[in-house]
Give the backbone structure.
Amino acid sequence: MNKLSFAFAFLLTFMAVSAQAQQIKTQVVEYKEGTTTLEGYLAYDASKKGKLPAVLVVHEWNGISDYTRKRCEQLAKMGYVAFAADIYGKGVRPKTPQESAAEAGKYKNNVPLLRQRVNAALAQVKKQPNVDASRVAAIGYCFGGTTVLELARSGADVAGVVSFHGGLATPSPADAKNIKAKVLVAHGAIDPFVPKAEVDAFFKEMNDANVDYQFIAYSNAVHSFTNPEAGSDIKKGAAYNAAADRRSWEAMKQFFGEIFKK
């Protein structure tokens, strides 16, 4: 066997062993908020022993989807217990943009209910037997980004929250004084759905409350820049941007390295 063939064989063996070493498990989890049944999605690496840091993942306006589950599985491969929150309720999965807007609007117009739903999911992930409840973060996309910011404003005991292309406005900016978490916002620099006035108001809100926050704006990025299903036409206001997706994910990983440090 020549050196090149040997190196290739070694690489294949290494990849096979690495794949076998990880045991990514996924399952649907029913839980309650009041009398409402919710259906989350749990992903973790069963080969990891002991208590692990956890990441709560909040879906876009269309509810838990293949995209949400993919993000949970990515996090599980990184060594986290990932749990997708279900804000809408079991079986409530909008099929069209119109249905998604209507469903998301119910919660954007009722922030106390939105906070109750996301806090119910936080309680669910914290009670998982393999979770270190002192090391939990929450991330969210679009509607989910808005949601994790409201989770922080509710005073939830989380180490950090990350909003990816989420709305920044809130009816209760004074509630920023309740924030215990560190905050990271990954924002599309030319997102037409989050105007400059909303960004400026967010800065004032965070600064007035002395929140430990980071705000990263990605050039040439609009809404939904992390989701390939958004297409590539930025004129629509929502489009995928591979560079912004990659850079924001790396920023999140660095953020987790900071907040989860023992």
In short: The two ends are 47 Å apart (CA to CA). The first helix runs from residue 3 to 21. The longest strand covers residues 131-141.
